[in-house]
Amino acid sequence: MVKSYNKEHRCLQNQNVKAYTYKFLAKQIATRVESNPTIPMRDLQEHLQRDDQVGIFKMKVFKARTEALNQVQGIMLFNTTVKIDVESEPNPNAETRTFKRIYICLGPLKKGFVAGRRDFVGLDGDFMKGPYPGQILSAVGIDGNNGTYPSTYAVVESESTNSWTWFLTCLGDDLGLGTNSNFTFMTDRQKGVLLAIAKLFPCVEHRYYLRYIHENMKANWRGKQFKDLLWDCRAHTDTMLNNMCESFNSKIIEGRDVPIITCLEYIRGYLMKKIVTVQKEIDKATCPLTPTATVWVGKLKKEATQLRFVFCGNGKYQVTKNLLKKFVVDMGQQTCSCRRWELIGIPCAHAISTMWELLKNKEIDKIPEHWVHQTYRLETN
User: Fold this and answer.
1) Whether the model pTM is above 0.85
2) Residue 371 clears pLDDT 90, i.e. is over it
C-alpha cells in the first residue's frame, strides 16, 4: 500500500526490495500452507514466484511511470516528442496501466534532420538484454559528414507488424512523411517491417542491406565476379550497407542490459554527447563544406585535371577521359551520366571539369564548392 507519494525521485534505481526479507517470505508460505495443507512443494514454489513477480513488477511499473512523467515534463520543453502506449485495461476506472511501449524523438535531432535532411533512413531492431524483454527500434540517417544521425528510437514489447506500424506512424508525424513521400528506407528482413512500410508509405523506395542480398545470392552465384557486379548496381543512393544502424546499436549495447527507464536515459546521454562532439568538429572547420565533403571535393578536383571538355549543344557537355570513356554533363539539370552527382549531391570530376571551363569563359560565377548540396555545407548562401 502506498501511503505517501513523492513526485520528485532522486534515488538511484535498484532492483533490491528491502522489505522483501525471509520473514516476509515465511508469512507468505505459512498463509498458503494453512489454506491448503496438502499443497505440493512444487506448486507452492510456482505460486510464490508468480505472486512475488507480479507484486514487484507492479511496484516497479509505478516507479517507472512516475520517473517517466518527470523526464517527459523536462524534455518536452525542447520540442521533444514522447509517446507512451499501455496495455488495454478491461476496467476503465482502474488507476494504473501496464506499460507496453515508448517512442522518443529528441527535439534538437528532429530539428536538425528536417533542416538538412537526406531523404534516407535505415531501420533496425535489437533485443533488450536486461530484466525486461523487448526490442529497441531505431531510425538512423546520415549527416553531412557521412556520419550516423539517429533521429528516433523506441522500446516496444516485440518486433512485429503492429509495433513497427506504431513506430513508423510516430516517425512519419515527426519527420513530416506522408503516404506520398519520396523517401528511401533501408532495412534487413526484420519481422513485420515490410508490411508496415507498405501500408504507411506505399510510394517510398525500400531496399535491403546489400550484405543480406549477397548472402542470399551466394546460394546460386558465387565468386568475386558476381559480387562485383552486384555492388555496381547502384540506385538512388550510394549507401548500401547497414553500418549506420549497426554503429548505433554498438554504442548503446551497455544500455540494453538495464531496466527500461535507465536504458532510455543511457540512449539520451549518448545522443547528447554525440551532438556536442559533432558541434566541436564543426567549430574547428575552416571551409564552407563538412570535413568529409572537403576531402571528397579535393580528390575529385585532382581527377578533373586529367579530363577533356567539349560543348555538345543544348546545355550539355561531353567530358572524356583517356579518349575512351565519355560522360555527358547537364549543368541545367545538375546531372552527369556517371550518376555520382545525383547519388550523393557532390559534383563528380566530370562536372567539376565542366565548371572550370565555364568559369574560364565567365558563363558561370560559382566555384565547384558552391554546387555541392546544402546537406554537406556548414554555411549556406
Assistant:
1) no
2) yes
